[in-house]
């Protein structure tokens, strides 16, 4: 039985959850400005208390590595690494966009899924997945009329997440779908992703691990059709 603590700070606020073998045991969410810095450790303690568990019961820590908020990711990763060092626990990391996909994919199993996190102006952090196939890796994309044309021409394409709102007026293709449900990275949706990596022994080097910022894109001037794909 694997008891894993998940931490998510890639968007405004923070969320923390406990999963047993991928099933949600307890969950605390707070979406407010600067909440990650102010209440993350409190939220972790509340989760353990609600579940009747202690740090000594944990088998691993999972962190949402990014992309996302620079400050939030830095706080979350620092906290996760500190816990791993203190309790000698393995560190698992998951992509913020994959966490969003895990939440919505059961409702759209045959559609192309395009999670979006807001970057700046008309830019988003995104990827494209259909079923188990990754059609475009994690990228920073400037939203234009021709963006995601290939996916849209193939069939129903679901755009969701905090960055999707800016695309509604741009993507008028009949296959473009914008669900009303608010989807963002949440610790409660990290359970199965974390379990799969835990069982595979896919752990990070705690000392060397850093958040996934997509800095290459953030530090450059936007140009037409610019897209940076993560390695």
From TrEMBL:
One Gene Ontology cellular component: cytosol
Family matches, as InterPro entries: ATPase_NBD, Gcp-like_dom, T6A_TsaB
Signal sequence, renumbered to the chain: none
Superkingdom of the source species: Bacteria
Residue span, Gcp-like domain: 32-149
Xref: Gene3D superfamilies: 3.30.420.40
GO biological process, one term: tRNA threonylcarbamoyladenosine modification
Protein's recorded name: Peptidase M22
Upper lineage: Bacteria, Pseudomonadati, Bacteroidota, Cytophagia, Cytophagales
């Amino acid at each position: 039985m694997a008891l894993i603590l998940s931490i998510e700070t890639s968007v405004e606020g923070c969320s923390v959850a406990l999963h047993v073998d991928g099933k949600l045991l307890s969950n605390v969410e707070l979406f407010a400005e600067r909440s990650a810095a102010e209440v993350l450790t409190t939220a972790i303690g509340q989760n353990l208390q609600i579940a009747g568990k202690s740090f000594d019961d944990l088998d691993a820590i999972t962190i949402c590595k990014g992309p996302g908020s620079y400050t939030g990711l830095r706080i979350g990763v620092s906290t996760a690494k500190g816990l791993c060092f203190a309790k000698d626990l393995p560190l698992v990391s998951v992509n913020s966009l994959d966490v969003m996909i895990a939440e919505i994919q059961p409702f759209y199993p045959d559609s192309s899924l395009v999670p979006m996190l807001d970057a700046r102006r008309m830019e988003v952090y995104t990827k494209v997945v259909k079923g188990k196939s990754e059609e475009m890796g994690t990228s920073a994309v400037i939203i234009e009329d021709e963006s995601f044309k290939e996916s849209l021409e193939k069939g129903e394409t679901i755009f969701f997440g905090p960055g999707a709102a800016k695309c509604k007026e741009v993507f008028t293709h009949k296959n473009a779908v914008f669900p009303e449900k608010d989807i963002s990275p949440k610790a409660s949706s990290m359970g199965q992703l974390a379990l799969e990596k835990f069982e595979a022994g896919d752990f990070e080097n705690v000392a060397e691990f850093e958040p996934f910022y997509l800095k290459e894109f953030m530090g450059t001037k936007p140009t037409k059709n610019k897209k940076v794909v993560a390695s």
